[in-house]
Design a protein that fits this description.
This protein is 31% helix and 28% strand. A hairpin with a 2-residue loop joins β14 and β15.
Amino acid sequence: MPRVNRTLVLSLLIVSSSVFLLFQLYYYRKYVSKPGPHILSRTGHLTANDVQWQTVKKFLALAQRFRLPLFLADTAALTLLSQDALRQRDRLVREPHCSFLCTGRPITSFALHANLWKYDPGLLLAAEQKGFDLLELRGEDPRLASLDTLSGEEIPLHFLFRLHGYIIQVVFLYERSGNYLWHGALRLKANMDRSFAPFKLLDYGRHAGAYDRPELVLTVLDGLDIRIPRNVSRFLYEQQHAHFLECRYRDARNFLQLYPDDSSPEALDFRRKVKSLLHLAARTLAHLDVPFWLSSGTCLGWFRQCSIISYSRDVDIGIFIVDFRSDMVTAFRDAGLTLKHKFGKVEDSLELSFLSDDVKLDVFFFYEDGDVVWNGGTQAKSGKKFKYSFPRFSLCWAELLELKVRVPCETLDYVTANYGDTWSIPLRTWDWKSSPSNVQGNGVWPPAEWAELIQVY
């Protein structure tokens, strides 16, 4: 039996022990000694949360290097930041090392203030060196589109970074002339990899979105420095109702080639007055926290010609009756408007009309009734009631006269209900009692109630 070389064995043991000690030192310095969660679970194995946290950490280091003005926009993560959720999380999570960024979803969403960042192609190379795959989605810049010029210039809309099966979505937010932030829809081109990410799970991209500019604060989540909206609940509400509809510039340009707009001094002065009145109404109703949308001729003007109808002589807005507030008239008066008339009552066919600088603001209140919604009208001299029915609709954001305003998402159905299939043809002669396609008689107010229900000033 050959003799064992004790010196050799001892040397091998020393080398093995040294390698093991060096590995432990490396692990301690790379993961344990740094703030934040440890990469291994109690069993010593990588967990899904660990991998996701490491992915986010690598990405944030990359963002810091290239000065990306990011903030956390992930709806699942932000939902966990409410106080109730925090308390519930503390009770349920035994290993709170990744309590907020690891949501059980393979996606973490961030938003980026595009106007505060200069595009750096080095970002893409650095991301690749970090192991990220990148899908860059671009689209036309709507800020450069107008009735005169339709720019084909493209801007980045969404970046999708993929590492270890996890997706980091970066949503580009651009400043628009209405003093709001906008992001584009996520649309894959024919040559793009449709299996790159679980697109149906993305928080952003099904449609364009519009947001008020959020105030941001720097905080620490799961050991990482991250900016978040100061008012998380407000941001989450906006995200749920952010759907934005772009003006149909090409159709509007075709319409104005057939029917040139009035460029007389009187028409230009009317547009100026309408813009001022619409901005004033928006500020007043925002202060009351009352949502409204463009209705009747004002909605038609936005949809058909991306502007107002200069011969309409008024501004029309809609409000759901459930959002009515008793101090609304006082608020408009305090804003400098004069009450012109008040028809109906909260329970039936309420309508308000205000005057500002010889331009009328008509406020129509809408009632829900099964599959339709309707607003009422009243003829002052006869007490006759009228009813205008529309198919149910949801509300989207749009822009008119440098103002972010709501419009019915199903705008074509809304306009067609009111103006019929010939809505694209201008009609200067209009009788509100008989011209609308959706008008019908709705009885007569009792003469004994006229003093209360038919008030003209």
